[in-house]
Amino acid sequence: MSTMTDVPARRVPPLGGFNLTLLRIELFRMLRNRRTIIFTLILPAALLLTVGNQKGWQDTAGSGNVAAYILISMALYGAALTAAATGSMVALERAVGWSRQLRLTPLHPVAYIIVKALVALSMGALAILAVNVVGILQGKAEMPLHVWIEAAVVTLFCTLTFAALGVFVGYLVPSENAMQILGPGLALLSFLGGVFIPIDTYAEVVRYVAYWTPMYGVAEVARAPLTHDLPWFAIVNAVGWFAIFVAGAAWRMSKDTARV
């Protein structure tokens, strides 16, 4: 006679359920969202064009010029905003019950996080590509090719910080509030962290506050291939905020998972 002990345990799929089909579905789902396309392709490129006729763009900055410095900054902002929006989609998934459905499958939470990170990187790469294409067509940014490539790659990996922030906020607030918080919040952090305005133009008190903000460290890291200047405290800032946002996202995800 069969007993409950005869019921086989649910088999965990290879790689915790991670597969290219799931990744493709998640990526296409993001690309079908009109707001995502605006954040990814239109907004960052438009910001670059908006400040495209400023005086002093041809002044030297590191191994390039000020136009290249601003291009990298705009690419970082666009990619950060896009990655955060991608991560915050977990709020909508929770609201419609998709997260609950996934928790009933053998999909491992780590595999789910990896998929989200790869989608965020893909969307961030599109934002960076859009800004760089506009910068090339604009014809004002000047820097060696290897610096151009290095800055784009470093900027891309810096966006993981904001993908983690998006997931953290997505688990923390209702779906309708996630981007209402992240959009203005990232804009404010970008102003304060020296993305839109050089940090050395701020008053001393504001500058000291800016050193502690999440955008300051990643902005310095992203522009380091151009400026050849990367203070140690900028590295600590970038690594520290990345760790904080990842820990926050993992904590909120574990709380959410425990409800099933």
DSSP helix fraction: over 70%
Summed up, the helix count is 12
How many runs of DSSP E, i.e. beta strands? Answer: 2
Strand content: under 5%
Major sheet strand order: 1-2
Basic shape: globular
Largest sheet, described in full?
Answer: 2 strands, antiparallel
Poorly predicted regions: none
The average pLDDT value, as a whole number, equals 82
Q: What number of domains?
A: 1
Class from helix and strand fractions: mainly alpha
Q: Report, as a whole number of angstroms, the end-to-end distance.
A: 31 Å
Q: Which value, in Å, is the CA radius of gyration?
A: 20 Å
The ordered H/E elements are: HHEEHHHHHHHHHH
Structure report:
The chain has helices at 20-31, 34-50, 66-87, 89-96, 98-103, 109-138, 145-158, 160-172, 178-192, 204-210, 214-227, 232-257; strands at 60-61, 64-65. It starts with 19 loop residues before the first helix and ends with a helix. The chain is mainly alpha-helical and 260 residues long. Helix 3 packs across helix 11 (214-227) and helix 6 runs antiparallel to helix 7 (145-158).
